Amino acid sequence: MSHRDTPRPHARSRARSWALQLLYGWELASEGSPTEHAARALARRRISPRYRPYAEHLVATVETHLDEIDADIERHAANWRIERLGAIDRNILRLGIAELRWGGDVPPRVAIQESVRLAARYGGQDSPGFVNGVLDAVFKGGGDVDS
Predict the structure, then answer these.
(1) In a domain? residue 146
(2) 129, 137 in Cβ contact below 8 A?
(3) Which single residue of 21, 61, 87, 130 has CA 20 to 30 Å from 123?
(4) Is residue 146 predicted with pLDDT exceeding 70?
(5) 41-45, 87-91, 123-127: lowest mean pLDDT where?
(6) What angle, rounded to 10 degrees, do the helices at 108-122 and 87-102 form?
(7) Band of residue 70 on the pLDDT scale cut at 50, 70, 90
(8) Taking a C-beta distance cutoff of 8 angstroms, is the pair 119, 92 a contact?
């Protein structure tokens, strides 16, 4: 994604919400890859051109690095196996780690803050604190995180 194509912060927030919905739908559908599911879902749904490129970029980044991301979650979510996490929290963490590690111009604190915002909006009562704790641990302990 070039600098000219980089959406404004509000558009990125909305794109993150869309990316979460797409990844959640992929898990429920249990077929194809995240990007294949996203393409099918976006063909049926209306999404603003301001949000779509970044949402697709996030889904593709998660897909490309899914094994690494899930390993980060298991390493930093003490006593939680990836399959035991709720689908919403798991996919919020995936998006947050994707932005922390491969987010380019997204500052780490913004990636964490935006993930916590998603958790507050879509997750359970304990989701924001859990997401914040895991992503903060990834940021502090994940030597590959861009700072």
Answers:
(1) no
(2) no
(3) 61
(4) no
(5) 41-45
(6) 170
(7) very high
(8) yes
Q: What is the DSSP string of 98-120?
A: HHHHH-TTS-HHHHHHHHHHHHH
pLDDT digits (tens, 9 = 90+) for 124-135: 999 999 999 999
**Tokens 């739908």 — which residue?**
25
Q: Is residue 147 a part of any domain in this protein?
A: no
23 located within any domain: yes
Count of structural domains within the chain? 1
Contact 58/15 with Cβ under 8 angstroms? yes
Token pair, residue 31, equals: 């077929």
CA distance 50 to 62: 20
What number is the average pLDDT over the span 13-21? 95
Q: Does residue 40 form part of some domain?
A: yes
| Phi, psi at 103, each rounded to 5° | -80, -5
